């Protein structure tokens, strides 16, 4: 369609253009803030405590909404506030092993739940756990017991002063790794 040559052309208005861009930037910032604080949790894993499941330097995405609708389950990988940090600024990524009310026993490099004679099946471990002195843990109500997958090199609940993570301190259920490659985690 041919443009009429006699139609008046509106002059470019810098003020309207700048206001339009500011609105777009503010909208994007609000959406990013809402997503990051209420929907997803983005975390970089700084150590090898979850190897081979999650490697040092991997970036993961977790769902902040997961535990609004269901309780955490044994085997979930979660992002949480480290219980020994009173500032609440240190985040850890570990696997839930003990649920509220559970007893967790570690004997001969194996984990036993609720006095079971059979050790917990843990196909995600990269190698057998090196035997250490027997340990017994009784998980309080509304709390969870966390261990790293790389047990021989993990600073997890076995080593913490405060052994258990309160449910309200769990930030998100880890869903997938997105860097250096995309991989669903379980």
Keywords, please?
alpha+beta; hydrolase; 2 helices; 16% helix; 3-stranded antiparallel β-sheet; Umud Fragment, subunit A; 11 strands; 8-stranded antiparallel β-sheet
Characterization of the model:
Its EC number is 3.4.21.89. GO terms for molecular function: signal peptidase activity. Residues 19-179 form the Peptidase S26 domain. Belongs to the peptidase S26 family. The protein has helices at residues 14-39, 66-69; strands spanning 40-44, 59-63, 77-81, 91-98, 103-107, 110-113, 135-138, 143-147, 165-166, 170-179, 183-184. The mean pLDDT is 93. Strands 1, 2, 3, 4, 8, 9, 10 and 11 form an 8-stranded antiparallel β-sheet that branches. By secondary structure, the protein is of the alpha+beta class. It is built from 2 helices and 11 strands, in the order H-E-E-H-E-E-E-E-E-E-E-E-E. Strand 5 (103-107) and strand 6 form a beta hairpin. The protein has one domain: Umud Fragment, subunit A (Ribbon), CATH 2.10.109.10.
Find the CATH superfamily: Umud Fragment, subunit A
**Contiguous uncertain segments of 5+ residues:** none
How many helices? The count is: 2
Q: What oligomeric state is this?
A: single chain
Order of helices and strands: HEEHEEEEEEEEE
- Total separate domains: 1
**CA-based shape:** elongated
CATH class: Mainly Beta
Mean residue pLDDT = 93
Q: Structural class of the secondary elements?
A: alpha+beta
How many β-strand runs?
Answer: 11
Largest sheet: 8 strands, antiparallel
**In percent terms, what proportion of residues is strand?**
25-35%
* Helix content class: 10-25%
Radius of gyration, taken over Cα atoms and rounded to an integer in Å? 24 Å
First-residue to last-residue Cα separation: 57 Å
- The CATH architecture assignment turns out to be Ribbon
Which fold name fills CATH's third level, the topology? Answer: Umud Fragment, subunit A
Protein name: Signal peptidase I
Subcellular location: Cell membrane; Membrane
Enzyme class: hydrolase
Keywords: Hydrolase, Membrane, Protease, Transmembrane, Transmembrane helix
């Amino acid at each position: 369609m041919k443009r009429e040559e006699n139609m008046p052309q509106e002059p470019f208005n810098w003020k309207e253009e700048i206001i339009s861009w500011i609105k777009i930037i503010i909208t994007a910032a609000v959406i990013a803030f809402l997503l990051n604080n209420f929907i997803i949790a983005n975390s970089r894993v700084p150590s090898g405590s979850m190897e081979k499941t999650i490697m040092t330097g991997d970036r993961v995405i977790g769902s902040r909404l997961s535990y609004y609708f269901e309780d955490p389950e044994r085997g979930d990988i979660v992002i949480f506030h480290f219980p020994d940090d009173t500032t609440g600024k240190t985040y850890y990524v570990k696997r839930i092993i003990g649920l509220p009310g559970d007893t967790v026993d570690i004997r001969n490099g194996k984990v036993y739940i609720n006095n079971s004679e059979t050790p917990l099946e843990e196909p995600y471990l990269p190698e057998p756990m090196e035997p250490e002195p027997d340990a017994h843990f009784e998980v309080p109500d509304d709390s969870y017991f966390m261990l790293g997958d790389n047990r021989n090199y993990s600073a997890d609940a076995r080593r913490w002063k405060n052994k258990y993570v309160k449910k309200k301190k769990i930030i998100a259920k880890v869903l997938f790794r997105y860097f250096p490659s995309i991989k669903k985690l379980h």
